[in-house]
Amino acid sequence: MTEPGGKRNTRAGMGRSAGARERDASVVRALLELHGRTYAREAGIRLRNTPVPLYRLLVLSLLLSARIRADTAVFAARALFDAGLGDARSMAESAWQRRVDALGAGGYRRYDERTATQLGDGAELLLQRYRGDLRGLREESGVSERLQRFPGIGPAGADIFLREAQGVWPEFAPYLDRRTREGARRLGLPASSRELARLVPREELPRLAAGLVRAALDRKAADEVLAAAEA
After folding, report:
1. Which of 53, 118, 121, 196 is the most buried (most CB within 10 A)?
2. What DSSP character marks residue 168?
3. DSSP 3-state assignment of 44?
4. Number of Cβ atoms within 10 Å of the Cβ of 186
5. Where in the chain are all domains bearing CATH 1.10.340.30?
6. If pLDDT is split at 50, 70 and 90, which confidence band does 5 have?
């Protein structure tokens, strides 16, 4: 079994005791209940395999990958969409100041000018290369690397996109990257992608990934899950 990042998982397939499996199930139930809302849903994106939701997820992934609070990135994404900048054509044709203002309205002020430029350039690239439709990228090889050709999307941004998109692009499931495995270790869950994926139905993988990321980023969230699982 090869983990994301190319590392071989030599422990895949090793069994866990019945007690450990029962504890894992309790922790995952608590995680999904308390912190299992996807970031796309928080940003008001009803994710489907269609151009507009996929583009909005790309925008959200860019915002979330900056060194800024996740809730600020989510608010900024909502502000952009509320300002009528929820598709590649509208973003590309918008004035730079309009993008800056929308980001500022969402509280995304530290990186607003640079991000406004990246959003405009990225939308133009998407229109030129894929006619505004990321499903064209899905059909190519090296999807993570191709995502990183969009301004502002680095390895972290590509991971964010694919963690959420695996629900509608199932060929990438289970997409449980380094950050999700950090959360799993903090919660005492199995640290391999394959074993983690066994803990939920396939359609719940994006929620599991989102919850594990929150556990990795926030010790308080992890402690809350553990307390609920033990209650």
Report:
1. 196
2. T
3. coil
4. 19
5. 45-154
6. very low
Stronger pLDDT, 146 or 111, i.e. the higher one? 146
The pTM of the whole model exceeds 0.70: yes
Place of tokens 């507009």: 52
CA-based nearest residue to 119, from 78, 77, 155, 161 = 77
Taking the domain 45-154, which CATH number applies? 1.10.340.30
Placement of tokens 């030129």 in the chain: 128
Q: 8 - beta bridge partners?
A: 2
Which residues 6+ apart lie within 8 Å of 85 measured at CB? 91, 94, 98, 99, 102, 119
Residues contacting 195, CB < 8 A, separation 6+: 12, 16
| Residue 181: CB atoms within 10 Å | 21
- Residue of 126, 74, 65, 77 lying closest to 102 (CA atoms): 77
For 14-64, the pLDDT digits (tens) are 567 888 889 999 999 999 999 999 999 999 999 999 999 999 999 999 999
Q: ∠ CA 86-89-95 to the nearest 5 degrees?
A: 85
